[in-house]
Design goal:
The protein is 4% helix and 15% strand. By secondary structure, it is mainly beta.
């Protein structure tokens, strides 16, 4: 005899052009996945799956979700990415067990205020929609760990975001933001913060309080003209992206960022670097292409863990002799500089695997370049 769950699945199978993946606990359906199946509507009978904990409808052709979704009271994970949704039902506020909601790549213009009643929600991802604001009700979601609202035409971020005190990951890239609320500094559990591809000319000093910001801080493609000095307080940050801004100098406080593993500063207007950069003892990757660097400090030879160094399209005519101490350096890109001789220090880079010297006006090549080739170093000229 067919159960109510069987009938609900049969109704759905008639509408989906693809395979249903079903997980059961006895007679109960607890997980259902129907991805990329051309589904244009949801049968009302789906609400009969009262034991459902996970529902994945990614990549369908849905323009709306029925209010009956509010009856799926055991639901913990809902994925509706890549549909054609212009709104979400207010009835989602009835889903008291909901922990994760994914609605990226839709056409959402607003979020339901009812979401504010999903107090156990830990992840909300609505990237690449048409949202122009974040409803104040969302600031009641104090258990949120991850919030992704990037790639929406949201031009103002309210101070209320500072109430999300358990937030660990925040993605607000590609929004056209011109300023940020100082309350962001209250989110002291953040380890990942993406502010890239906005129109920010300055940042609130309160961000210097984010001492747990250790994984990723992305500020690329904004309008910053100065390297914020409070960044020196983020001493455990591993990745910093400040590319495609208008920076003309780097202050000595960068030397305080001793946890830095990867630093990206390309596409700025830098002419030199401070000696303090040599104090970044953990640094493995440094990207400096498309600046106006005319020289590098001797202290860069102290970057003992450096593996990859990109210096393409600068104004360098030589390298400091201290580069010979970079014994872990494997990749060195010197394309499109002003070198006329190959710097002698390169010969002593024992770990080097690739050297790119193209688009320099080299007068003569030292014989030791062939020795490097014989050792397996790929040399491009």
């Amino acid at each position: 005899m067919r159960t109510a769950s069987d009938r609900s699945l049969a109704d759905l199978e008639q509408l989906v052009d693809g395979e249903l993946h079903v997980e059961r606990d006895g007679d109960d359906v607890v997980a259902l996945s129907a991805r990329f199946g051309g589904l244009t509507t949801i049968p009302e009978s789906l609400a009969g799956l009262r034991a459902l904990r996970s529902l994945d409808l990614t990549g369908q052709c849905l323009t709306a979700l029925p209010a009956s979704f509010g009856e799926l009271v055991q639901l913990e994970t809902l994925k509706v990415d890549g549909n054609r949704l212009t709104s979400l039902p207010e009835a989602l506020g009835k889903l008291g067990r909901l922990r994760s909601l994914h609605a990226d790549d839709n056409q959402l213009e607003v979020l339901p205020t009812g979401l504010g009643r999903c107090r156990g929600l830990k992840k909300l991802s609505v990237r690449n929609n048409r949202l122009t604001e974040v409803p104040p009700a969302l600031w009641r979601l104090t258990e949120l760990r991850c919030l992704s609202i990037g790639d929406n035409p949201i031009q103002t971020l309210p101070e209320g975001i500072g109430s999300l005190l358990h937030l660990e990951e925040l993605y607000i890239h590609d929004n056209g933001l011109r300023q940020l609320p100082s309350s962001l500094g209250q989110l002291q559990g953040l380890h990942t913060l993406d502010l890239g591809h906005n129109q920010l000319a300055e940042l609130p000093e309160s961000l210097g309080k984010l001492r747990d910001l250790t994984s990723f801080f992305y500020l690329s493609d904004n309008r910053l003209t100065a390297f914020p000095r409070w960044l020196g307080q983020l001493q455990r940050l591993a990745y910093l992206g400040l590319t495609h801004n208008q920076l003309t100098s780097i202050p000595h406080v960068i030397g305080e960022m001793r946890g830095m593993v990867e630093l990206r500063l390309y596409n700025n207007q830098l002419t030199t670097l401070p000696p303090a950069i040599g104090r970044l003892a953990a640094l493995e990757e440094l990207y400096l292409r498309d600046n106006q660097l005319v020289e590098l400090p001797m202290e860069m030879g102290d970057l003992a863990r450096l593996v990859s160094l990109e210096l393409r399209n600068n104004h360098l005519s030589t390298l400091p002799a201290s580069f010979a101490r970079l014994q872990n350096l494997r990749y060195l890109d010197l394309r499109a500089n002003r070198l006329i001789d190959v710097p002698a220090c390169i010969e002593r880079l024992s770990s080097l695997r690739k050297l790119d010297l193209r688009w320099n006006k080299l007068d003569a090549l030292p014989p030791w370049l062939e020795d490097l080739r014989a050792k397996g170093v790929k040399i491009l000229m």
